[in-house]
Amino acid sequence: QVQLVESGGGSVQAGGSLRLSCAASGFTLSNYCMGWYRQAPGKGREGVAHINLDGSTSVLNSVMGRFTISKDNAKNTLYLQMNSLKPEDTYMYYCAADRGAGGYCGTPLHYQYQGRGTQVTVSS
User: Fold this and answer.
1) Torsion from C-alpha of 44, 1, 59, 94, nearest 10 degrees
2) Taking Cα atoms as reference points, which of 26, 1, 5, 2 lies closest to residue 94?
3) CA distances from 99 to 27, 51, 87, 89, 113 (A)
4) Any residues with CB less than 8 A from the CB of 37 and at least 6 apart, and which?
5) Among 117, 98, 102, which residue's Cα sits nearest to residue 34?
6) CA–CA separation, 44 vs 61, rounded Å?
7) Can you list the positions of beta strands (E) in 2-111?
8) Contact 20, 89 (CB under 8 A)
9) Cα 122–106–60 angle (5° rounding)?
10) What is the DSSP string of 48-66?
11) pLDDT tier at 113, thresholds 50, 70, 90
């Protein structure tokens, strides 16, 4: 059974950092598209970052240079390092996974599996 469990969220002041973790079980992380998306009431959902099957990464323009996605295959864990946080980064962050179709991953908004999320709140 596929399971994704996020951790590492919290409340920080603008300019601070957080590292989100996503512990995966029930599948081998290296064989899946992995990503993060975020969602908040009144703000909708947006894909933040994802790792393709070939290991390449894609990051939302508004967080480029501040957020880094990575994974540890040995630990079956996905990470999102978030630096220089801004109040507009306040969202619930979700980990997502998908087998991909024909090697294509696409946005994590459409992935088959999601975790329950971890809240990130950035104050000014």
Assistant:
1) 40
2) 5
3) 10, 12, 33, 28, 10
4) 45, 46, 47, 48, 93, 94, 96, 107, 108, 109
5) 98
6) 17
7) 3-7, 10-13, 18-25, 33-40, 44-51, 57-59, 67-72, 77-82, 91-98
8) no
9) 30
10) EEEE-TTS-EEE-GGGTTT
11) very high
CA distances from 63 to 1, 23, 66, 70 (A): 32, 23, 5, 15
How many CA within 13 A on the CB side of residue 41?
A: 0
- Rounded to whole angstroms, how far apart are CA atoms 20 and 24? 13
Beta-bridge partner residues of 40? 44
**CA distances, 56 to each of 6, 18, 33, 63, 100 (Å):** 22, 22, 10, 17, 14
Q: Are 46 and 111 in contact (CB under 8 A)?
A: no
Q: CA torsion sign, 66 to 46 to 79 to 124?
A: positive
pLDDT digits (tens, 9 = 90+) for 32-83: 999 999 999 889 999 999 999 999 999 999 999 999 999 999 999 999 999 9
